[in-house]
Write a structure and sequence with these properties.
With about 450 residues, the protein is mainly β. The chain has a single domain, classed as Porin. It has a 14-stranded antiparallel β-barrel. A hairpin with a 2-residue loop joins strand 7 and strand 8. About 50% of the residues are buried. The N terminus is likely disordered.
Length: about 450
Amino acid sequence: MTTSFKSAAVFIAVGAAGLAPTAINAASFQILEQSPARLGTAFAGTASVADDASTVFFNPAGMARLDGRQISAAGHLILVESKFTNIGSTSATGGPLLGEDGKTDKPGFVPNFYYVQPLAERWWFGIGINAPYGLASDYDSDWIGRYHATESELSVISVNPTLAYSVNDQFSVGFGLSYQRAETTLRNQVDSFNTCIAAGGSGANCTGLHGSSGNRASDSSAKVEGNDRDVIVDLSIHWQPLAQTRIGLIWRQGAEFTLEGDANFTPSSSCAADPFCSGTLQTLGGNVEADVELPDTITLSASHQLSERWQLHGDVAWTEWSTIQEVNVVNTGNGLSVTTLDLNYDDTMRYAAGASFTPDKTWTWRFGVAVDEAPQTDRQYVSPRIPDADRVWISTGFNYAFSRDASVDVGYAHLFIDDTRIDSVQQGNQLAGQFKASVDIFGVQGNWRF
């Protein structure tokens, strides 16, 4: 157990550096990719199936339905390309905002590790290491939306010990604690001309030094970093009212982070020569913090053995995204707001249906479809950091059993994502246009019982 746990920790830490690209998985920056087996059914039946160790995450109460000690280790490769097309973006002075149409196509890798073992006649213990939230986007520093975002990274790594108790042969309950650590990095360009004007510089002096609003040659740059940790709980039940039917329900608490770190500004040569611009950046730089309350989630799942070979699955999931309205980064030394990310999120629903087909003892084939709501589609609140939109999942996959105690799962999903419109203002510059995304997800999982 010790060796497996250390190996898993290294596996997760390495993978965390390249977490899911923005706008590719569940709503906003939530990561559903916690098991390639469940990926095959578009994450239908997540809390009810309980057929491998990944139930540690999806429904700890389901551990009581497993036989003996089990390990599942997995990885997901996420390929996304999100392209932006400019539609009339304007600078603060009213002219066209100059810059290239941007895109972000940074691939993501999401690892997972789960271990389950019986403790006593009715008790089971499990532990999971995964990344339930994360995003990564990377635009060129001269793209047209550079004042809104150039680079965004968020990783939330979770270590989740769990317990399950079997009340009887049909009903079990689960409880878990999760230690979660969040790290984030945000970068964008700073319009030196607009900074000069906002600080009280005269139009003539600001123009002489920086040219005009939206002048890429005079851009300065900003980088904000922060991290924090929290401990949260999850509660779950698993019920098998009939031999052919399983029902699962899980509530998972959202972490509350106060991200603490630094804001660093690199002035351009023109900004460094301008006391209004350089003075402003110097005042804003330093120690910063930002409060973020992640959402609670509730998932209800059902699985039904329709025949000897066919099993049907369904999921209904609610996410309390309304806990996030804005993320305000504040300088702790002087109380000034360094930047604010206005999200104005609403709660969301996700609906999934899937099926499993087992023609023999070696193969199980999986299929699924899901509809996933975005927490924000109002163009004035959409951000290039998280250009979210409603999406439809189409998934397939299989399990191949090498023996009774070893198997492999492979899953694939393609996401059809609505085009995302944006009409947002940062630093006086209006970014107006449309994001179009293409997403494919591949996952492989190994399972061992011993």
